[in-house]
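Minutes, methods subgroup
Present: GH (chair), OT, SY

1. OT presented the first of two proteins processed in the latest run. Sequence and structure tokens recorded below as shown on screen.
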Amino acid sequence: MTLLDDTRQAMRRDKVFDFVAEERFPFAQGRRVVDRNQVDLTKGAILYLEDISVSFDGFKALNELTLYINVGELRCIIGPNGAGKTTMMDVITGKTRPDHGTAFFGQVMDLTKMTEYEIATAGIGRKFQKPTIFPQHSVFQNLELAMRTNKDVWTSLVQQLSGEQRDRIDEVQNIIGLQDHSSLEAEHLSHGQKQWLEIGMLLMQDPLMLLVDEPVAGMTHQEMDKTAELLTSLAGKHSVVVVEHDMDFVRSIANTVTVLHEGHVLAEGVMDDIQNNAQVREVYLGE
């Protein structure tokens, strides 16, 4: 194969006002690219979910969910199976339209009126639990394919990487810890390294916010530690939302933890408060 083959109340919007992609690469030709410079972050929050409800055949996957994510924060989302975590991410990325409620990226971008592609180009990247990389291409080539650039056939045939683009790939390889594996085909990476590579592919698109689904499932303890270091290093420059079941991992990275249950927020706060919350212990820990 060649590269061408893969060619809360105070924060509510009504109080502060006077708001990972259908295509593998969100900068393909022929799609409307949203200018991420239009994302208004002046109020300090990057994501506003307010009173979001989603039903599937009578089952309420989300039930008046209200959630705010601040610019540059690392937020962990936990909850039992069926709590609504995946549906929440589907709403954020445009895969699922809510029956009721509002979802805004910054102050003015209404996610419920945007396509998955437009949401990706606006700056929301999503990493699924199972890594979606190109196994027969090298680490370098995977990152090159994910770069924010024109993906039409002619450009891919004749255009050479600029020095700035090569520097960016090198930078991302260092961020994800794969600089020594640049020429290695991705299929030969360990499970953890494949997860890091996919995070790197999202970083090549320079997202404002990353949604990361169960990043340490199946990892060794050493890989989990490196993943914790990676995600915490990304916070600040990016807003990072991590959905995870491993409580030890959550404890190692979380400042604020949000607990979902039956489609709404059951509790929110620092890890110690969450662990000592009687309702959380009952519905999440089974006590």
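2. SY then presented the second protein from the same run.
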Amino acid sequence: MNNLKTVVVISRDMVLTSIVDRLLKDSYMVADFSNIQSSLDYIYASIPDLMIIDIAMDDAFAITILNEMKSDPIFGRLPVLAIFEDQFVIPKWDHLLVDDYVRRSRLEADILLRVDLCIHRAERMVEVNPLTRLPGNIAIIKQIQRRLDNNEVFALAYADLDYFKPYNDRYGFSRGDEALKMLGRLILNTVKERQAQGSFVGHIGGDDFVFMMDVEHIEETAGKIIDNFNKIIPAFYDPEDRARGFIESVDREGNKKTFPFIDISIGAAHNRFRKFSHYGEIAEVASEMKKYAKGAGGGCFKMDKRGTTNL
């Protein structure tokens, strides 16, 4: 398995790109793009460990997109290393949201050191799940509490997998990790496709994920996640198990049993009609709804509707 960290390089200058690729290729996986817009699908699908961007003084469009990305609660955690022309006048740093920079004249001498420093600094300062690169528990708690403190109306959804332990026991943790990475990408892409601004996706750990959106988007998004997951997950099974439609594994007592394919249960709560002041209160309700979804047979979505007859 390739454990190299991934660096996205964005530049229209093929000479610059070739220099950076040559200097980083032994230590990192490098993905090259000619502009920031063309890189977004790749970044959203699999969050890299670092972005290197060649920024010109007059490239207001790239700076705007970069600043929007860095202001996002998920992608703001992606460290950005800028490459500037020697004559580039550095603006106020709140107008250009990068984490570090290197001048072109120092590119050959400094780029590898600056990349290493950016990534190590980000790993020390940012709490993310190491498997999916999504925000972890501390970031999730802060995000929920900030929204409550600001009196924002939002929905919080909890998602986890059913029959994931038998899958791990049957195929091993490495294959289980691949399924979790797929789920993280699926949730992130589906949420961002429906609500690009103001949404949030986090990975609590194991097979537990959360996402936050406007209330009116949550049910449709959860349904799409469940539908797409059900279409994708059979590909994670061996052909003979896929043909049977189940696997043989052991339960928690060690008894040999048959188990259906993994499915996903999602529960959600919102504060449109109920007042929550502490993150634990709304999180408890969302978790309760997730358990309700699992108890209903799994593979479904349940929303807390107490306090109203409809949404």
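Chair's summary of item 2: The radius of gyration is 22 Å.
Next meeting: continue with the remaining queue.
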